[in-house]
Amino acid sequence: MADNKYARMLAAGLALAAASGIARAAAPDVERRQPQVEKIVADISPQRIEAAVRKLVGFRTRHSMSETESDTIGIGAARRWIKSELERCGSGKLHLSFDSHIAPVSARISHPTEIVNVVAMLPGAQAESRERLYVVSGHYDSRNSDVMDASGAAPGADDDASGVAAVMEMACVMARYKFDATLVFMAVAGEEQGLLGARHYAVQAKQQGLNIAGMFTNDIIGSARDENGNLNNRMVRLFAEGLPLEKETSESTRLLLSTGGENDSLSRQLARHVKEQGERYVPGFQVNVVQRRDRYLRGGDHLPFLENGYAALRFTEAAEDFSHQHQNLRSEGGKVYGDLPEFNDYDYIAQVARVNAAALATLANAPAAPSRVQLRTAELENGSSVLWQPNREPDIAGYRIVWRETSAADWQGSLFVGNVTDAKISLSKDNVCFGIQAVDKDGNVSPGTYPAPLR
Ligand SMILES: [Zn+2]
Questions:
Q1: CA pair distance 98, 89, nearest whole angstrom
Q2: Among candidates 163, 94, 81, 99, which has minimal Cα distance to 350?
Q3: What stretches of 104-219 adopt beta strand conformation (E)?
Q4: Would 27 disulfide with which of 88, 165, 214, 416, CB 3.0-4.6 Å?
């Protein structure tokens, strides 16, 4: 809001809000850092993350078709250890389960194989929010150069013990606190064999009608150095899809396209929230939103969630070193290949975990994003008039209209309009993108909802 133009726009909006009789209820302080979130961020420990990565690497391989009987080698031992660790640290607050299915033979599965996700749920404390879920995952399976090699060493320290260790650390720290909405911490299997565990969970969630309001996968968040040694440990990439990849354009996508809302999909709204809150609680660390679903040639566990209609994002380190991913352990010309724990930077993983935790805590304490938001378009006029359904949470303080120029990535202005479900603002809907956010009495803010045109 340093920009004079937006200061003027805001002043105009405020003047109009006053003139139109909107109750100027005291706006909760939405910039204030919540003490609970600060404590969570401070408690994230690089030492515990490193210990978990080294323990996971110690299972020699976590290939999805590897040994399951042994207590020391293979994916079975790995998942039993993850579950028992979360049971121990969650001290009754985390509800642990194995989400299991048999994957049939496919391109990357040579015989029917049990794929098991380790799921730790922290139920929400507010009745009106408990059925709103946020899922955060890493994948505990690993691979080497040969995706079908189920017995050779596959340490997978960066890909993706880093993500699993971060999720375990978040679960253990966050289990000590209460949140309005439900958090699901998940260590997923079968990622390297075709996103099998995540797809099973996402398809089931859709069939059961689960309200997953956001999903993050943390995949390859272990190191901030590329193959030339360039270091960038003050930034993480957050991949966020715009319009969904559909065979036929759905009604919701048509609606976005018809009004210039291609940068206002659910995933982009979620990414805006993650960037704002992550950078607020982890100063000096940048969340670089990349406006595409994933890197070229790669996919991740967020994709099945996107395909099932959920908002889903991928965290990945700022720069990758491909000689340490999907490689047999070896030396060639003095260079070490393989995904070993010594190539990770544990302070960096902790920073990424802090961004995740800040985003999850602020989402789970905030109200749901407003529903049925509509922008009146029946008449040609230069002001804008928005209406929406009231939220159900008992601690709602009111709503904010946020806006940005059509070419801007992040919100540039906001106006708290009180606890109403209809508001006017003197900005022209032709020139900006609007969002409506719900705000609770503690100043927790939901992601924005893009308004549909109402004729
Ligand atoms: Zn991976």
A1: 17
A2: 163
A3: 113-122, 132-139, 182-188, 211-218
A4: 416
CB 96 within 8 A of CB 90: yes
* Tokens 């008449």, located at residue: 379
Q: What is the pLDDT of residue 321?
A: 87
Structural domains in the chain? 4-31+371-454 (2.60.40.10), 35-365 (3.40.630.10)
**Cα→Cα distances 415→154, 321, 434, 448, Å:** 52, 44, 11, 13
What pLDDT does residue 1 have?
43
Using the mean position of ligand 1's atoms as its centre, give its distance from the Cα of residue 219 in Å.
5
Given pLDDT bands bounded at 50, 70 and 90, which one contains residue 18? very low
Q: Is the peptide bond before 160 cis (omega within 30 degrees of 0)?
A: yes
The rounded distance, in Å, linking the Cα atoms of 392 and 431 is 32
- 160: CA distance to ligand 1 center in Å? 5
How does residue 2 score in pLDDT terms, banded at 50, 70 and 90? very low
State whether residue 355 is helix, strand or coil: helix
Prediction pTM value: 0.94
For the stretch 286-307, pLDDT in tens is 999 999 999 998 999 999 999 9
Cα–ligand 1 centroid distance for 253 (angstroms)? 29
Which of the four pLDDT bands, split at 50, 70 and 90, describes residue 10? low
Q: Which two tokens stand for residue 327?
A: 């490689």
Question: What local confidence, expressed as pLDDT, does residue 265 receive?
Answer: 97
CA 218 / ligand 1 centre spacing (Å): 8
Per residue in 59-101, pLDDT tens? 999 999 999 999 999 999 999 999 999 999 998 999 999 999 9
Å from CA of 33 to ligand 1 middle: 33
Pairing mode, strands 211-218 and 312-317: parallel
Sheet of 182-188, strand order:
95-103, 113-122, 182-188, 132-139, 211-218, 312-317, 235-240, 286-290
SS (HEC) of 399-434 = EEEEEEECCCCCCCEEEEEECCCEEEECCCCCCEEE
